[in-house]
Amino acid sequence: MIAHVIPLTRLPARFSFFDYLIPEGLEVAVGDLVLIPFRGFTLQGIVCDLVNESAQKKLAALKAVIRKNVLSKKDIERFFRISHAIAQSPSTLMYATLPKHIGKARAYKTPPSPAKKSPSISSDELPALQELVAFIKTHPHAALQGDFETGIALAHILSSHLALSAQLLILVPRDRDADMLRTALKHSSLAVVTGTTSEADRAAIFCAWQEGKVHILLGTKQVALWSASHLAHVLVLHAGNDEYANHRRNPKFDPREAARLLAEQHGAHYVSVDTLPRIEDCKHECWSVPFFIPDPQELHPFARFIPLAARTEKTAYPLLTLSLEEAIKMASQSQKRVLLFLNRKGAAKRLQCALCDYVPLCGTCGNIPTVRATEDLLCDRCQSEMWIPEVCPMCQKARLKFVGVGGEKVVVDLKKLFPHLSIGFVEKGSDVAWKTADIVVATEHVFANLLIPFTRYNFGLVADLMADLPVGGVDFRATEHTSRQLLRLLFLAKREKAECLIQTWIPARLPDLIAPTFVITEELRVRQEYKLPPFGNIFVTKTGTIRNPVNTPDEPFVYDGRYVE
Asked: For 46-58, what is the mean pLDDT?
């Protein structure tokens, strides 16, 4: 007998499996973890098939079986399907996914649970949550509207109603999200896998999950590829978060799509949750938006839109409209704090010559540096600091000017308007003012790293100073991202019982983007017309990409929309 074996190492995409002789007396099955000689080394590998003949004349023999039934045949087919689609070898995908010490994995023991706090859902939100639970029961593939607090509540409900041997997989984009969710779930069989989990613990959890001894697995990215025993639900929180799309390190797979394939393999419910349901998950009418009643023709009850171009709103300070000033005064008089969102660092967007339009770049990496309030330049990519040149390096004229408004400039202007209030700019590496300042000017760092679910911050006003910034993105998902960002702000305002102001240069268009049903319906129509995901493929890999494929997928597996065919 001959075994097709996938070596657990990084290999080019043209390689799939290698043939090895099975010594007499050695019992080998598909999915076993074996020890193989490979190019002068001894490696681990996964048996993907057993055959009687091989096209190769000279074959090496398997050395030993390390662990039985690490993967099932369907698990291996799933790995091949994903690797085929992302033009990676199955060896590379398995090497990055499977823990390194499975053969020596110890028995997993659930660590002592930290002090847990049960999710506290308000009575006015309970009907919407019950609607979501009922929707999940009737739809095997559900895309739901809700923020992280909603997701935690759903995770709590699903974990509380798990059958005796059923399993629940929960995916989150960041380690911090996993840590927060860990403290909210009350279950005796919960395992958490993040980037900080040791290899020994990772191997123990993998084996326990694969054998059905762990009933709830909470983790980031790689756990979407792990084999399960009796999977009942897959819950993806922050489903539209860009951190799921791994563009920096190989293998570049999308864990959301991998988790969907895993759910299909087990006949489990696939549930994704975000403030705007992910458009790729909304095909076939499988989405629900119970929190906001969408009607783009009427003023939204939770938001007030302020046109930045209106003459009646003009002040001496950019982005600080008259309506915003009045709202800040009202919140201050009520002893409430103010959160102003502007995802721009520095005092200005860039430095540019008014004569020749030249933009000075970072001399180290070529990035456009940020203009700081100290009147120097800082590269956000490589952290190089530069003095502002006196003349334009291109035309040698003293016509350099600041273009755009940054968060630091807004803070300077606010201090002039409200000298009696404490004002702070919160960004990555500088968040001292987050809990102390009366007025917080915040970047995306606040939503990604500082907001804690079920915690209230005494905000009386939340505002987006320039809400249409994401609309100008080159990605076809720009509308989706803008809508999700606006709805995220509305969820925060609703939970804080605060007024919500949205400042925009396009007041005729932006109110439509806080109507989830309108946005989803329109996005699905446009994407179907232009053959974009989920109705078309951005790129397709061909069968010839990988040598000796076990099977050729009937449908291509698309993981990202930034690549053009």
From this structure: 89
Q: pLDDT value at position 493?
A: 93
What's the token pair of residue 402? 């600041």
Q: Which two tokens stand for residue 534?
A: 């989920």
Residue 176: name the closest of 241, 89, 235 by CA: 241
Is the link from the previous residue into 534 a cis peptide, with omega within 30 of 0?
yes
HEC string of 232-266?
EEEEEECCCCHHHCCCCCCCCCCHHHHHHHHHHHH
pLDDT single digits (tens) 167-205? 999 999 999 999 999 888 877 789 999 989 999 999 999
Distance CA 564, CA 545 (A): 17
Question: In 146-222, at which residue ranges do the beta strands (DSSP E only) sit?
Answer: 167-171, 190-193, 216-219
pLDDT tens digit string along 518-547?
999 999 999 999 888 888 776 655 544 444
Q: What tokens appear for 189 in the block?
A: 């069989």
Q: Quote the tokens at residue 558.
A: 């698309």
Q: How far apart are CA 142 and CA 151, in angstroms?
A: 13
CB 115: neighbour CB atoms within 10 A? 5
SS3 content of the chain, % helix, strand, coil (to 5): 30, 20, 50
pTM of the full predicted structure?
A: 0.87
Predicted local confidence at residue 183, as pLDDT:
84
* pLDDT of amino acid 16: 87
Cα separations in angstroms, 120 against 292, 442, 473: 20, 26, 37
pLDDT cut 70: percent of the chain above it: 90
Q: What is the CA radius of gyration of the chain?
A: 27
Q: Which amino acid is at 323?
A: S
Question: β-strand 269-274 against 231-237: which pairing, if any?
Answer: parallel
More confident residue, 336 or 353: 336
* φ and ψ at residue 454, rounded to 5 degrees: 60, 25
Distance CA(334)–CA(229), nearest Å, equals 55
- The whole-angstrom distance between residue 206's C-alpha and the CA centroid of its chain comes to 23
- Of all helices (H) and strands (E), which one includes residue 128? helix 126-138
Query: What would the DSSP string read from start to end of 487-536?
Result: HHHHHHHHHHT-EEEEEES-TTTGGGGG-HHHHHHHHHHHHHHTT-TTSS
Residue type, 100: K
pLDDT tens digits for 272-308?
Answer: 999 999 999 998 889 999 876 444 444 455 689 999 9
Cα–Cα distance for residue pair 22/182, rounded to 1 Å: 45
- Least confidently predicted of 202-211, 227-236, 263-272, 370-379: 370-379
Give the count of alpha carbons within 13 A of 287, CB side only. 26
Cα 364 to its chain centre, rounded Å, is 30
Inter-CA distances, 340 with 87, 314, 461, Å:
43, 18, 8
Q: Beta strands 33-38 and 41-51: pairing type?
A: antiparallel
519/486 Cα distance (integer angstroms) = 12
Rounded to the nearest 5°, which phi and psi values hold at 305? -95, 130
Contact present, 305 and 507 (Cβ < 8 Å): yes
- Mean of the pLDDT values across residues 12-29? 91
